[in-house]
Design a protein that fits this description.
The complex is a heterodimer of chains A (162) and B (204). By secondary structure, chain A is mainly α. Chain A has helices at residues 2-25, 29-47, 56-70, 84-93, 97-111, 115-125, 130-137, 141-161. Chain A has one domain (2-161). Chain A is built from eight helices and no strands. Chain A is globular. With 204 residues, chain B is mainly alpha-helical. Chain B has one domain (3-202). Chain B contains six helices and no strands. Chain B has helices spanning 3-19, 25-41, 45-63, 71-99, 108-149, 161-200. The longest helix of chain B has 42 residues, at 108-149. The radius of gyration of chain B is 25 Å and the shape is elongated. The chains are: A mainly alpha (162), B mainly alpha (204). At the A-B interface, helix 1, helix 2, helix 3, helix 4 and helix 5 of A face helix 1, helix 2, helix 4, helix 5 and helix 6 of B.
Chain lengths: 162, 204
Amino acid sequence: MGKEYEFTQIIKDNEGVIFKITTIYTNNQEDQKDLYQEIVYQLWKAFESFRGDAKISTWMYRVALNTAITRIKKEKRRGNRIGIDKVIMLQTEQYDTEFEERLKILYSHIKGLNELEKGLMLLLLEGKKYEEIASITGLSPSNVGTRISRIKEKLRTQIIKE
Amino acid sequence: MELEEMQSIWSELSGQLEKQKKLTDKMIIMMTQDKFRSKINKIAYPEIIGTFVCFGAAILIIVNFNKLDNWYTLLSGIVTLFILIILPVLSLTSINRMRKVEIATSNYKETLLNYAKGKKQFQTVTKWGYYLGFILMFAIMPVTTKILNNKDLFSETKRVWPFAIAIPLAIVFFIVFSKWVMKFYNNNINSAESLIKELEDTNV
């Protein structure tokens, strides 16, 4: 019971993070619900082998991002989806329209990046330092810096095009 | 939208999400259990059924191979056997490769690299699957006619006109279809390739 309790606490503490990852890596709510559930499942599976070598947040981002990029699309999910509909719906319901609009623009910018850049951008927005981004992604901190500069450049070009 | 503005929206979003926590212990536990059940059910059903069908047909041809008594039915038999065996093996191998990625222990870069390689392989196999499937459609006809009805499709067919219509139509269809296949899969393969190149160029 102790293990289950510890796990549910981690998920509860990070449910917002999982929500943001699922929004970036999917294009519709059905996919988002599937991915949300898949991430929780993969975290549960990986929790067994988690020995605390890395920070819990590093471990969590790593598993969640890996799950998001390896999800085989168009695969029929035969199991029933748990009622996370409510979770996802309610989280977006309460925003004002102006904020919702700005958020949409932000998501469209992120979704325009490639898979590697998308992950880097997400971690940057999450306020992670280059060292932690490096440890999650497997890139060197200097490489993270170079790539983030390139992403900034890319975003600027996108803005000019608009 | 500048990065600073993005960061401010993101942190506002994070704050909102933090305030609206909805998950309960029960929901989390159910998600893990439910996923476990669905995992058992969803193991590449179409691919496995396809493999059984292909291997079944291949066994039928092997058992009746002695009935293929002239060069063209024999050649068709060999081509058919080759396609029926090689295609499902390649397809299952590449799906397996994509699934074998170690989610819990790999970092983002390793996962992306392995997945992109698997995806490229899968897309290439699928693309060739369309071409080989088309060849199979023709190659299997004389073989099945011979094995199931003991008839030679070429020398014992009395009415030629159905073939005279069907074959040119099939060729036109193949040309149009293969152009679409090339465009669709080449785009996917190229994007996977460029990601692989980008990741391999990274000096860590």
